[in-house]
């Protein structure tokens, strides 16, 4: 029987960063402009004045201190509040393709492989910058992979669901190795004028190389002991941007064409579901929570991760057991748990067990138990 292993990972981090103070300053400047422009309606009681944001709230409620973004100036311009990412010609690589290639190259180098060793590319992320041709086929071409490629989206769980698809392809023999790449440009679909969510997301791209065990050196990478996927429909995280928007002019400009969520409900409903999914998965693998050396959790909210770790372990987890990258990256959707894995996996010893677990819109949960070879 063919066994799949994770032999390499890669990360592309946009160089520009925005810290909470910078973001809040721009938001509050926008609020002043907005409230000034609507002073009469506000005075008449026909409109509510927008309230200022605060850095201390952001850090306390989420654990986020800063985020990396593709473009800083557009987001911080109170007259614009959106990244400035110029459209590229069809003969140029797309932005997501550039990010993906950078992350894939690092994953290949880490595994000691080249594009010639790869048969498939899955681009798995929350938003594709165009419907077609598939971004993955462009990435395949840019890397020089002879094989097949497809795009897939399960929001924050795209990378872990993509990982299962890659494992399936390798283990059923349809590919020798598969790159799963997640170019997340969350700043492109975040409403920077919304106080409740303007601080939540950042941009990054991760890549994972999944190969046949027999094609890797002994002791290299991570065995995949099992994947567990779960979905349960919810409207609490939603984005109605789509190709049918032009079919109804009344919808244009509504805030639901960007990310919207009921953050409290998400927190309350998803945390127990995630802990239950991990515990059931461990039970199915005849493992106990205490067997876990590390949990690479989805990086949306620090308090949420602490609660999940406590539910799984029955005690508080330290940052060595459940590493945090959201302070530096914010929520990068499906890239988050993979960034945590990429940055915090090399110190594990042979035989050490860990779980990569993503959760988010859908709801969707993807949990992958791995063992250091
Ligand atoms: N500054 C100051 N005060 C604020 C701010 C702000 N920026 N925002 C809200 N407040 C105020 C509120 O008005 C409220 O005031 P009051 O008590 O007077 O009503 C108070 O602070 C508390 O507000 P909340 O109840 O909203 O605050 P929470 O403590 O719940 O924290 C969080 C908000 C941080 C959003 C939290 O609920 C959270 O993180 N929940 C989990 C969310 C989560 O994990 N979501 C995952 C979604 S991501 C995903 O699945 C991917 C989707 C696809 C990618 C999309 C990319 C764009």
TrEMBL record:
Molecular function in Gene Ontology: 3-oxoacyl-[acyl-carrier-protein] synthase activity
Q: Which GO terms describe its biological process?
A: fatty acid biosynthetic process; secondary metabolite biosynthetic process
Q: Does the keyword Acyltransferase apply?
A: yes
Is the Ribonucleoprotein keyword given for this protein? no
Domain named Beta-ketoacyl-[acyl-carrier-protein] synthase III N-terminal is located at 150-230
Coiled coil regions, renumbered to chain: none
Q: Name all Beta-ketoacyl-[acyl-carrier-protein] synthase III C-terminal domain ranges.
A: 286-371
UniProt cross-references to SUPFAM superfamilies, sorted A to Z: Thiolase-like (SSF53901)
Q: Name the Pfam families for this protein.
A: ACP_syn_III (PF08545), ACP_syn_III_C (PF08541)
What are the protein's UniProt keywords?
A: Acyltransferase, Transferase
Q: What is this protein called?
A: 3-oxoacyl-(Acyl carrier protein) synthase III
